[in-house]
Amino acid sequence: MDMVPASAEPLLHMEQRQLRPSHHGGWWGLAAAALLLMLLVTVGPLRPMLFGVPLPEPVALTLLTGAQEKGAVCLDGTPPGYHLQRGSGDGSSSWHIHLQFAGTGILGSDHLQNPDFYNWNKAYVRYCDGASFSGDAEGQAQDGTILHFRGLRIYQAVIDELMENGLANATQAILTGCSAGGLATIVHCDDFSARFSHKVSVKCLVDAGFILDVKDISGQRSFRSLYGGVVHLQNVRQVLPKDCLTNKEPTECFFPAELIKSIHTPMFIVNSGYDPAQTVAEAVGDWHRGRTQGVKEVDCKYPCNPTCNSQSPL
User: Which of 43, 169, 190, 276 stands 20 to 30 A from 26 (CA)?
Assistant: First the structure.
């Protein structure tokens, strides 16, 4: 049962008196409120309503033409697809190709939030092959289902189709990708650049795709095991650098640290200086099992650990 005060009116007056700002606190409160309002107006949800900026519109999915004939199909044999948004103005001859997974920021169409790329032609290529657009093989599941590992063909066929739809006339182009798409960007960066003349500005951006071949919290090299399975199952070897394959195993050559050694196209790599998955796992595990009090002592200023830095691997 809820407790009801004997008199609600005095309580209301008391709350009003308590909330009345002091001279100094009031000015700081007004300043903070003004700053928040300014942020909401310029880059937040109020901006479209106040300035008539159109909200982002869904971009229709385009299925790859002749996917079956080209053998460029998803794992289940269905056609892959991409979303194509045409550019405008001085961005009509500039192209941005993004390989899924994820994708925000430079894909936006708001000129204030994305001033350098907002009006470019944008193609968002869906991920459906399971090997960073790099495999070319066929397998069979235990229940007899045929699995199509055709990521390489998908990448090639989609880029070919985009070239026919205006990409070939680009004056500048950028290939980007996040996570699995980031690894794909590293793999295909030079191939993408080779499709254009030397007069065209071509660059690549890798977001969270620089996977490291290091031991995880369990002391195992889980990614090496994972990559090894993918490389052999999906026949990824054919896209790996030949100079690396002469000295090392294909699995090792699929890691970005080896891939970037043979890349000539300008590339910008964005990767976190910390591994949040591992740091959270360690912290929670230590706390739960009472192994250390170190979790309570992490109060130093960023970057805290002097061995970590925010520099790109390149």
Answer: 43
**Residues 26, 5: Cα–Cα separation, whole Å:** 30
How many helical (H) and strand (E) elements, i.e. helices and strands, does the chain have?
A: 11, 9
Q: What is the separation of C-alpha 208 from the centre of its chain, rounded to a whole number of angstroms?
A: 6
Domains of the chain with bracketed CATH: 61-271 (3.40.50), 275-314 (no CATH)
Q: Which of 203, 199, 184 is nearest to 120 (CA)?
A: 203
Cβ-contact 154, 161 below 8 angstroms:
no
Cβ proximity of 95 and 174 under 8 Å? yes
Beta bridge partners of 62: 82
Residue 204 β-bridge partners: 175, 267
Helix (H) or strand (E) holding 146: strand 146-149
Each residue of 275-291: pLDDT tens digit? 776 677 777 777 777 77
End-to-end CA distance of the chain: 64
Residue 106's pLDDT band (cuts 50, 70, 90): confident
pLDDT digits (tens, 9 = 90+) for 222-274: 999 999 999 999 999 999 999 999 999 999 999 999 999 999 999 999 998 77
Nearest-angstrom CA–CA distance, 256 and 163: 27
pTM (2 d.p.): 0.74
**Are the CB atoms for 122 and 85 separated by under 8 Å?**
yes
241: Cβ contacts below 8 Å, ≥ 6 apart: 253, 258, 259, 261, 262
Beta bridge partners, 124, equal: 83, 98
Interstrand relation of 146-149 and 121-125 (parallel, antiparallel or unpaired)? unpaired
